Amino acid sequence: MAALAVCLYIFPAYGLSxxxxxxxxxxELRAKGLFRxxxxxxxxxxxxxxxxxxVAADLRREVRSRIAAxxxxxxxRGELVSRFGDSILMVPPLNAMTGLLxxxxxxxxxxxxxxxxxxxxxxxx
Length: 125
Known about the structure:
Elements: H1 2-13, H2 25-37, H3 54-68, H4 73-84, H5 99-124
């Protein structure tokens, strides 16, 4: 009994997972695909597939249970987006709210090139 308690205490500390995969290999493959698409809300830069955070483990369990219940990836993704917003997705969709994020680098590059062109054409005159 003491050995079991030690194992339960040590395994999470070393990043070893005690999560049970789905019995159906196709369903587990679908779940793992979704894990890579969903962002950990604690780590922010990692998907829930890579994150050791408890929140990510909870989301992995939820995704597995919803897939086992027969929900599609789109239904699961949609429900999580409605709960957490687009920030739960590793690749946010292009819409009015995220448009500036997608276009921002291009706008900065364009502005910088215009400023450089203006600077060098006035220096040459």
